[in-house]
Amino acid sequence: MIPSAWLALGEAFLRGKGIEVEDYQKPFRDRMRESIAWPYWIALVQHVEASQAVTLGKNEDVQQAIGKFLIVHRSNYNRWFKEESLPGADKYFATVVILLRKELREVTVPANREVIWKAVSRTLSLVREADCEDGRHTISREEFAAARHFVTQQHSDVFMGAVRPTPKLTLLQNTSSWVRGIFPTGTIRTTQDVLRAVTNWHLPYVLFRIGLPRAWEILDVEAVGDAPGGATELK
């Protein structure tokens, strides 16, 4: 569970932008679904590239070549290439059937855990860029684990100035120790490393949790579940 003080922080941030929580959740769900679909499309593009099923022109990307083959307007496939929009399911299946001429089972797809992490990390990056207006940044599994662990601790609202019996330093030490156990060869080693991750990602993470339907919380739980030495549940 995420403490109510953090949810209140996120809700106040949204209201400050003139957005009600309910109005935020629908486009967030759309964004999350699209982020889940992206790894499957990218895996298919890699399959096309590996099989040399298309001939690339000078400075041409595989996705652009796929778009030409499927007779899609250039503006559309250029947006795929720039990751501005996701090809629809019709483009995915047409690529399998017409271009690759394969059965669906013959096409390699990523594992669920990989899809979940890529979907969560992409969504958090988009939230930070579009909603927090803080530029495009990519979150690492360690940063996600650190921000999530810290925010979900009891008394973690000391980060926002609340007076609690547990000092902020103790909470940072708890998170630092936990992250080192999950990522023994990682880059987050000290309380300062944790503080940096929390400072950069606490708001995108809180907005992520506000937008995420309760029935979809497996995405939050499993996002670093396959980390080296990691458990599937982050407390």
What's this model, at a glance?
This protein has 235 residues and is an all-alpha fold. It contains ten helices and no strands.
Please give a structural write-up.
- The chain is an all-alpha fold.
- It is 61% helix and 0% strand.
- The protein has helices at residues 4-16, 21-51, 62-69, 74-81, 89-100, 112-131, 141-151, 168-182, 191-211, 218-222.
- The longest helix has 31 residues, at 21-51.
- The protein is elongated, with a radius of gyration of 20 Å.
- The termini are close together.
- 30% of the residues are buried.
Key terms for this structure?
single chain, 0% strand, mainly alpha, 235 residues, 61% helix
Identify low-pLDDT runs: 228-235
The number of helical runs is 10
Strand percentage, roughly? under 5%
Mean pLDDT: 92
* Total number of beta strands: 0
The H/E string reads HHHHHHHHHH
CA-based shape: elongated
| Gap between N and C termini | 9 Å
Radius of gyration (CA) equals 20 Å
> Which structural category do the helix and sheet elements fall into?
mainly alpha
Percent range for helical residues?
A: 55-70%
Main beta sheet strand tally, sense and closure: none
Show the helix and strand layout.
Elements: H1 4-16, H2 21-51, H3 62-69, H4 74-81, H5 89-100, H6 112-131, H7 141-151, H8 168-182, H9 191-211, H10 218-222
